[in-house]
Amino acid sequence: MLQAAFSPGGVSSPAVGLWHDVGNGGSRVHLDPELAAALPELPDLHIHDLAGARVRMGELAASAALPSAGEVSVVDQAVPGADGVPVAVRVCRPPEPAGPLPALLLLHGGGFVMGGLEMTTAQAVGLCTELPAVVVAVGYRLAPEHPYPAALQDAEAALRWVASEAEGVDTARIGVYGMSAGGGLAAALTLLMRDRGGPQVCFQLLDAPEVDDRLDTPSARTFDDTPLWNRADAVLSWQHYLSGCEGPVPAYAAPARADDLSDLPPAYVSVYENDPLRDEGLAYAASLLRAGVSVELHLFPGTFHRSAVVAGAAVSRRQSAETLGVLRRALHPAG
Questions:
Q1: Which class is domain 69-331?
Q2: Between residues 189 and 28, which one has the greater pLDDT?
Q3: Which of 24-38, 60-74, 86-100 is the most confident on average?
Q4: What pLDDT, on a 0 to 100 scale, did the predictor assign at position 68?
Q5: What is the pLDDT of residue 20?
Q6: Which residues 6+ apart lie within 8 Å of 169 measured at CB?
Q7: Which residues are catalytic?
Q8: How far is 309 from 46, CA to CA, in rounded Å?
Q9: Which 3-state string (H, E, C) describes 178-243?
């Protein structure tokens, strides 16, 4: 998660949260008290002003507390991409590993339209040391300048590079971890790799995945004025991302449209209570389970979309610890 330096104001976190009125219709959301206390400090990332939101996203990334890299190697590279377009990746390697390490492909959020490598640097360094693993963050191209399938092509190119060129990687233990739009890309990438015969992905972690362009769930219809992300953002996000599509929306763009989710890697799906993307994440996890895919699902109460940026809140710390534990079990199964 992007760990920005937000202070929740020292409010305790009792079992019950706070009710807040949101939305034009006076909808009510149930917020964790620590998250509610941090609301005045949150940046406006709503994308009706995309240029402004991109600037503010960059400022948020710049404010993130970077863990001490220590002896971790952090190297930026350009790997071969589709049609000769290079893909920017940031590769974090732990010092002197004892044998090949697992790898984790990290796909940032931002509604397909904002974000970049800086958004995941702190997280990549932290995961690299704490798992340990070779962590590869992907600076995929953004819509609307580069609509679907550009971002997915970049994610595929990065994965193929990790599997074939990255040094010191155990190719049987490559996981993908995506947040929000990155979660949608991670889900799409596993579908694409299944259908194209690899490279193999051993695990997918989908955090608030953006997987359904139809936006016809109760949460997508209800949460029209929630922090960081709301229905209007989701509508614009898909409009930008799918602007290059002609005809029916493909499942590689919106994985919830897939008819067959069988033979995909095990998944962990996390969703946020007061998030327009909540129900599509729940539905996608259920669809994976029905298709015979092993799934772990966690809804974090009192939260809003990517409220994990409020790093000091107890629920954010709990989510971060659980994410780390899930990835350790998936990438170090014999550990």
A1: alpha beta
A2: 189
A3: 86-100
A4: 62
A5: 58
A6: 100, 101, 102, 103, 134, 162, 163
A7: 180, 275, 305
A8: 15
A9: EECHHHHHHHHHHHHHHHHCCCCCCEEEEECCCCCCCCCCHHHHHCCCCCCCCHHHHHHHHHHHCC
